[in-house]
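Appendix B, Record 12. Input sequence as logged:
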Amino acid sequence: MTEIDLEELKKSKTIRELLEFGIINIDKSTGPTSFTVSEFIKRYLGLRKTSHLGTLDPQVTGVLPVALNRACKLTGFFLGEDKEYVGIMRMHEEVSIKEIEKVISEKFLGIIKQLPPVKSRVKREEREREIKTFELLEKSGKDILFKSNVQGGTYIRKLIHDLGEEMKIGAHMLELRRIRAGIFSEDDKDYPVVSLYDFEKAVKEFEDGNEKSLRKMIIPGEIISKLYPIVQVDEKEIFRLYTGKPFFDKALVNKADLKLERGEKINVFSGNKFIGVYNVVKEEDLFAKPEFVLQPIKK
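Logged structural output:
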């Protein structure tokens, strides 16, 4: 499998191309909803549409990637990715960290069942979610600092509430910050989170003719290549694939290197040119069918 140099690819794009197929990793503050932040970015940049990659409650801060224009079509591919949080929970009675850790290890690690909270927008039916880590870092009275890595779609506030119920003492969440959403994190050296203040400042500079700051904060939509294997196709196939056609074994450049199973998702490239996200079908000589195709973007 080959890798794509995102920084080199980004340098080859105009700012308009980046705005047409890019993502900005926003550091959401307390107060606004995720939708409000997404809409603000759309209006401020004068875009057709934006879409956030995973809801944060108004009181929750942290990583909120926002897709721009055509990158909105990638939202579904990112939503199910793992999320990582740090927060403070308050136990309603004095209890030791060891007692809490014992209950966590028995009931709140691995696959658990969770009923969405009453105020959630999803149907209230029990769902399975995976809690990959749930660490207690520090205790101050009844307040516990914690860190948790969970499957996308897990409700942390409900997790804390259920922990308190299980211990028969009660608990609620005081503060929560998302520090990672899939491949997007707050301390990414290439694409760290951006405050709305810095975003506004960068847009004003852009309007005054300086695109440097805005360009720096836009992540190319091709970052989807970090989620699924990359498959290279012959450049002679590009025009045909742009029409939404599936492709056959003969189109593959690196077929000998591929060890893919039917049903896997793949990123299809021709050189550094992103074609789209495909599903491997392996039906006779038919190799894959498209889920998303990126039509050429005018420079």
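The radius of gyration is 22 Å.
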